[in-house]
């Protein structure tokens, strides 16, 4: 280890992170297009070239999911986004409905710093809560369980999630929320990542009973005008897809 690296390692963690962020900088996509009606400057990590391409045109990122938010989001909604990254869905939600409350869960301290920059651009920054913790089936200094928020009386009406194979673990910590059947869940499911963990798609889907939830599936989630389907059995079930579970008595489709 060089002397410079040794001295750096002695600094408080918060100071180390601040120096790293200053050194790496950030990338701003000017007038980024989320939908045909929403365009604004968006802050992304400096190596986020994929996002440069996706935000170059309206509906460039998960078009049918974005359209779902356009059709269904309301100002009195409370949105949980698990795996929020730099806050794409926070930007979208707060621009569509300025009064919405948005909780952006992101375990990576580097990534969540860009979410904070985007929060300050929202119409009501105080309604956006970046939470720098991973979400799972237990709670400690690094992890939080969704059901902790339910105990505190914070119940999301919309639950968006993209956690690269951690779906079962997250839902094991959200059983009280699911049992309430007052929340619409819009979840990206990752079959290959689940398999690596010794888990499978059905373990994710089985959290949501037919008695309480109406379900739909979105294969080919990157393609424009892909249709939501009522039955996933005809699909290969090997690639990522979106799963929508909406309370039967409060349908949003």
Q: Overview of this structure, please?
A:
With about 250 residues, the chain is α/β, with parallel strands linked by helices. It has eleven helices and eleven strands. The protein has helices at about 5-10, 15-25, 50-55, 65-70, 90-95, 110-120, 145-150, 165-170, 175-180, 190-195, 200-205, and strands spanning about 25-35, 40-45, 80, 100-105, 130, 135, 145, 160, 185-190, 215-220, 240-245. Strands 5-4-3-8-9-11-10 form a seven-stranded mixed sheet. Strands 1-2 form a two-stranded antiparallel ribbon. Helix 5 (about 90-95) links the parallel strand 3 and strand 4 (about 100-105). The termini are far apart. The mean pLDDT is about 90.
Short description:
The chain is built from eleven helices and eleven strands. It has about 250 residues and is an alpha/beta fold.
Q: Which tags fit this structure?
A:
253 residues; alpha/beta; seven-stranded mixed sheet; two-stranded antiparallel sheet; 11 helices; 23% strand; globular
Q: Tell me the helix content.
A: 25-40%
- Write down the overall mean pLDDT: 89
Multimer state: single chain
Task: Please describe the biggest sheet, giving its number of strands, its sense, and whether it closes into a barrel.
Answer: 7 strands, mixed
Amount of beta strand? 15-25%
H/E series, N to C? Answer: HHEEHHEHEHEEEHEHHEHHEE
| Number of beta-strand segments | 11
The geometry reads as globular
Structural class: alpha/beta
End-to-end separation in angstroms reads: 56 Å
The residue ranges in which pLDDT falls below 50 over 5 or more consecutive positions are: none
Q: Count the helices. How many?
A: 11
* Strand arrangement, major sheet: 5-4-3-8-9-11-10
Give the radius of gyration: 19 Å
